[in-house]
Amino acid sequence: MTEHTGRAAPVAPAAGPGSGGAPAGERAAPGGAAAIRAEDVSFGYPGRPVLRGVDLTIGAGELVALVGLNGCGKSTLLRLMAGLLRPDSGRVLLGAEDAGHLTRRAAARRVALLHQTGPPVPGMTVRQLVRQGRYAARGPLGMLRDAEDEACRRALADAGVREWADRPVDSLSGGERQRVRLAMALAQDTRILLLDEPTTFLDLRHQLEVLGTVVRLREERGLTVVMVLHDLAHAARFAERLVALRDGRVAADGLPREVVTPALLAGVLGVAGRVGTDPEGGWPVCYPDHPLPLAD
């Protein structure tokens, strides 16, 4: 990892669109190890299909960003990976286990999901909220017996919120609360971390702070990270691999420098624009010009 940029260190190159390599969604996992595998996954709500035959492999230790327009299926795919939803067809594997066959508590021992927003927690301290992440491992009786365990202490320290441990959560700023929620997810002590728009409602400073923390923790803990991001600039900078969804399908999959093109801006995000290269970090930089007419 390059410390001054906060960008993830790249792993084995992925084949991007037009590169002559593997088709979108069929990228081989580094070293042959797959942390998550979606196999021909389809899912929908009554009268509204969301995912249509998604094939996607996430290698152990990867940091992957999911991008695409609202409603393309990004958050739904995360919830399927976390075992909170079951596919209408196909399956999602966590290692060798079918996520759809796991109980929610069993899935939570394998995958931590940080939702876009959390419910209000009036009167709860940072320490108490982070302890909620231990429910899957310890159960209700274990939560009552012990005030804190090593996983909680480590999560507080790793997310940089230990000094706030006894402060009420509702006294913190939005960026501080997001770091506390990240600590709660870390307290689950899983090897897979799923983040659904972790920078939503944050100002630019706190967006960079949260994403930099995710990159650092991924490296220090050896995590597999999949995060939904709306900001393509952040995705191109902080992730080592981008997966773009369009109409419930994988439209592009590869290294940011291969995937982020004017064709992606137009075909996936619906905007005309140009793509350059950051002179220091080397990641793609987008210059969106104007929205394109919606397809019928």
Automatic annotation (TrEMBL):
GO molecular function, one term: ATP binding
PANTHER family named among the record's database cross-references: IRON(3+)-HYDROXAMATE IMPORT ATP-BINDING PROTEIN FHUC (PTHR42771)
Keywords attached to this entry: ATP-binding, Cell membrane, Ion transport, Iron, Iron transport, Membrane, Nucleotide-binding, Transport
A Pfam family that the UniProt record links to this protein: ABC_tran
Organism the protein comes from: Streptomyces sodiiphilus
Record's protein name: ABC transporter ATP-binding protein
Region spans: Disordered: 1-31
Xref: CDD domains: ABC_Iron-Siderophores_B12_Hemin
